[in-house]
Each structure stands twice: as C-alpha cells, then as structure tokens.
Amino acid sequence: MTTNAPNEPILKSVDKLFNWVVSNQYLGWDIYDGLNSPLLRDIKNHYLRVIVLQANKYCPINMRPFLKIEKGLDLKGMTLFAQAYASLYSTTGDERYLHEMQNAVEYIKGKSLKEKYGYDCWASHYYPYTGIDRSTLSLETPDIIGTGQAIIALIESYKITKNAIEREIAASAVEYLAEELFIDDTKMPFFKYTGSNENPAHITLNASAQAMEAISAFQDLEYHSNLQSICEKASRTLLQTQRDDGTWAYSIYHDGSTKRIQLDFHQGYIIDGLLAYLPYSNDPESILNCIIRASDYYQRVLFRDDGRSYYRYPLPYPIDIHNQAQGIITFSKLSRLDRRYIDVANKIALWTVKNMQDSSGHFYYQKWPLITNKIPHMRWGQAWMMLALATFWKNVNGESL
What we know:
This protein is mainly alpha-helical. The chain contains 15 helices and 10 strands. It folds into 2 domains: 5-29 and 74-397, Glycosyltransferase; 34-71, no CATH class. The chain is 55% helix and 6% strand. Helix 1 packs antiparallel against helix 15, helix 5 (95-110) crosses helix 7 and helix 7 (144-161) runs antiparallel to helix 8. The longest helix has 20 residues, at 378-397.
C-alpha cells in the first residue's frame, strides 16, 4: 500500500481512534441512553420520558455518572466497527483490523433474535427509546437499521473469511427484511422501520433505502430475482417522493403528504441506498438522475465550503459528528461515479479530524461557536467516524488484498 501526504492525517486519525475504542473495549454511552438510568427508567408518563431522553441527549455536561447510567455495548455500533475493520484490513493488510472485525462479528451473531422471530434479525440498541410521536424501540424488537447494518457487516466479513455461517445468517436476515418488513403497498411500496406495526401510519423513507443497501450487498454474493423485484418497487417510491430540490422528507403519509422534514445525514442514507441498488435497477438512468440531483443538494446546501455540516438545514449549529461522518461516507462512495467527490469527502474528513478529534483519539459529539460538547458517544461518534474514515481510505486507495 502506498500513502501520499494528503491522506496521511486520515490513517493517523484512524490509528488514534482505533487505540481509543479498543482500550475502552467498545463500551460507551449513547445520546439516547437516558432511560437506562435506574433513577429515571420507571417513569411512566410518555412526555416525561421524552423530556428525559432529550435533556440527556443535548446537555453539554455529561450527567450520566450522576444518573448512574452505565456504559454499554451497542449492536449497531458493533456492526459499523465490523464494516470499518473489513475495509481497513482489505486496504492495509493490518492483522489488528482482522482480529477486531472477527470479534465484532461474533458479538453480532450472538445478538441475533432468531430464536424469538424465526429469522436472524437484530434490535439496534441496548437502551429503550420513545419519540414524541410515541414511536418506540426496545431491546427485543428487531428493526430495519440494526438488521440492515448487521447484514452488511456479515457480508463484508464473509468476503474476507469465507465463513459460510456468516453468509447463511446474512441470507436469513435478508429473508426477514423481505418477508416481515416489506409492505407491497399498491401506491407506495416500502420497508417498515420495525416489525411491531402491521402497517404503520407513516413511511420512513430512509428505512427503505437502508434495506435496499443491505439487500444489494447480498445480491453481490447471490442474486435473487424476487429480491430485485422488491427493491425495484421500493426504489420507485423513493423516485416518486423525491422533492423538486432533490431532497426527501424524513417521513410521509401513505397518500404522499409530508409528515416530517429533517434535512440532515438521512439524505446521505438515501443516496447510499440508491447507489448500492443502481447496478440492479431496471431503470438505472432514472436512479442515476435521482442520485445526481440529491447529491448536488447534499453537497451544495448541507455542507459549507470548509467541510462543516449544517445541523438540520437551515439550522447551522451544532455541528454534529454524525452529520460529518455521513458526509465522508456518502461523498466517498459517490466518487465511484464522479472522482471530484473524493475531494469533498477529503475536505470534510480533514476538518473533522482537526476540529473534532480529541488528542486521546475519540471524536467529540457536537461543536457550537463558543462551546464543544466533548462527550465521547461510542456509536454516534466513534463507530460512525471509524466507518467514515475507513470508507474514505478504501475509495482513495482501493483494495490491496
């Protein structure tokens, strides 16, 4: 592997981050772990539970030690670390990454909910969550994000290890997405966020994109026409719901009307899903045009010239580490279509490393004009940045193994 000067800070950043997360044994806090406090978890009132979660999320002072919130291992975080290590091992040949990838994959396999649901599937997190709209996530309810990311992690590991069990588990999980989470709606086919609702009142668009990305990763190994058909239907919904400026609402009602707009890293999720599905589409020209429009807005509007992201456009602050990470990931992947995007990813990465990485190795949560929230969230910050920097490195240097 050759290294050129502009990329050296990235690999040095990865090494510092790697040493930090390994020394902490992947245990960390999460922005949504407020209800894990033994002092607060028994609150019954829905609105008080939401207030607890949001106050804990945004407080720049880490109250978790005082609230007796213990650090935990996050399933989705481990799937992101596994993917990152697969990329880093493929490009560097460093055995440390192979070892940590295999450990992460073993953890993922052990957290499967197959005994309960009949398919391999996963709940994303180690904490309960409730939203203002009464949406919930629990430790025993599989969701499309955790399951999708686990599929990708298992497939990336299989490409290296050729462990047939990992391929079999990924196949089972893909079947779960297709059989349990896909809704073949006559107007707008989509993937549900969780399996808890028979037919939810609204559609979360980025969930469909993430399912498409996971299924497309599996299609790279083992093509199935029925999976292509499902993704084609879901992609039609994304094409249909793209707004005139190239963006998507976060969620919509079944009649197509907007439920919630949130212009942030979720735009990158959708671009990534469409990019992954592009080689399998029956209408690649429409998918490509959709990607181009979305990517133009994502770069031009949601990121500033120096590499800083908007929080939720048009809100300029705080600069959030997850927004930074997703920008690096998406623009690195877009460089396969247009190499100029690698410069965009590089700019975001260098700004983030310079301004949001602690000397100890971890990345800060959020940055305001006068203060910085330095709480080292393991999944939200460290796992996403590990994947971001690994994705950038892979797209700059290519696979050497």
